[in-house]
Design a protein that fits this description.
Length: 371
């Protein structure tokens, strides 16, 4: 992993070696922070969690307030905290909506029951007034239920939302081709595509937002990231841009004025994510079985006579075992000089096919182990 800090007043600089990568220290007069980034593990594999740490040091002679620390995420990487928080918020929202719906339906049932009782009573002014009041309450409940519905669009297409009693519609995580067409009290929405939920996520700091970072002090901001457990994951170097917003004035409860001075520092970082060993082993097994099958079919076509089950299963089992061993050897032994690169599922499949088709000769050539 490498990182460097880029600002308006300083040119980009390379990263130093080692596990911790420091950004170039800027001038105090330019409003630059001392930023450094490190990972929880020197090697990151697909499907596993890893933490990214941003060290912020205040180089100024006066305190600063960190307003926000965010980073962009590529589509293959997601935030573990953000995903858990989203699921928690979604569960709470669904539970609250369900409770509200149950209470509203109970009130409607009680109103209907009371209206039935009033119908059996003699006509009087009090009965008419109570009936009108109950009908107005039932109408108000139905209107609130109609106005409180959420429109959930999970893919491209069209959606209809009904508006009542000046209801407000809030649209999140979607890009609309045309905002809305209104027909009476309905609105048709055309969603062009969905925005990624994890496009920009926030890092968490150990220092509360309303507490100043004193001169010469440092603080660590953390985010836990991961990738999906995809056996076909391709190794890649992902670029992250961590943005730090801070000010020399304490945050105010009032809306920030246009004259408020919010400073920004950006720390680019590159995270190399490799395919998991299980993905490489799975590819080697598939390739080994495929290569051994091709070899058996060639032998069966060229020789006459019957073949029993043991003569077929033994080469397949041997190819699978040798393929796994060769893929682990090639993937873990960095100094191995091989004519194939075993970095992902397809590299393991290629090694497995060569061993399955060529037999022990290919295994000895790849691992440089001779009997």
């Amino acid at each position: 992993m490498s990182v460097r800090r880029m600002t308006e007043d300083s040119a980009p600089s390379g990263s130093n070696g080692g596990g911790k990568l420091d950004a170039e220290t800027g001038s105090s007069n330019s409003g630059l922070l001392d930023l450094s980034i490190e990972l929880s593990s020197p090697q990151v594999f697909s499907g596993s969690k890893f933490a990214l740490y941003l060290h912020i040091k205040n180089p100024f002679s006066k305190p600063i307030w960190i307003r926000k620390v965010t980073t962009n995420l590529p589509s293959a990487v997601h935030s573990v905290e953000d995903e858990a928080q989203t699921q928690e918020n979604e569960g709470a929202r669904v539970a609250a909506a369900q409770n509200y719906l149950n209470e509203a339906m109970d009130r409607l049932i009680r109103i209907e029951r009371r209206l039935g009782e009033l119908d059996s009573q003699p006509v009087s002014d009090e009965r008419e007034k109570e009936a009108e009041r109950l009908k107005a309450s039932a109408h108000d409940i139905n209107a609130r239920l109609s106005a409180s519905r959420d429109l959930l669009l999970t893919q491209q297409g069209y959606g209809i939302v009904t508006l009542a009693n000046k209801a407000h519609v809030r649209i999140e995580n979607a890009r609309l081709r045309n905002y809305a067409w209104y027909v009476n009290d309905q609105a048709m929405l055309h969603v062009e595509d969905m925005l990624a939920l994890d496009d920009v996520v926030a890092l968490r700091g150990s220092l509360p937002m309303d507490v100043a970072l004193q001169a010469g002090s440092s603080n660590v901001w953390t985010i836990t990231l991961s990738t999906k457990k995809n056996p076909f994951f391709l190794p890649a170097a992902y670029r992250l841009n961590i943005t730090v917003l801070y000010s020399f004035d304490p945050p105010s409860d009032q809306v920030e004025q246009a004259t408020s001075r919010i400073h920004s520092n950006v720390a680019p970082a590159t995270v190399n994510i490799r395919s998991s060993l299980w993905s490489v082993m799975g590819g080697s097994v598939c390739g080994g079985l495929l290569g051994a099958t091709a070899r058996l079919l060639q032998q069966i076509g060229s020789t006459a006579g019957s073949h029993d089950a043991s003569s077929i299963l033994s080469p397949l089992l041997l190819a699978a075992v040798l393929s796994i061993a060769a893929s682990i050897f090639a993937a873990r032994k960095s100094e191995t000089q091989s004519f194939v690169s075993v970095e992902d599922f397809w590299g393991g499949a290629l090694v497995g096919f060569l061993i399955g088709y060529s037999g022990t000769a290919a295994f000895e050539s790849l691992t440089r182990i001779s009997r």
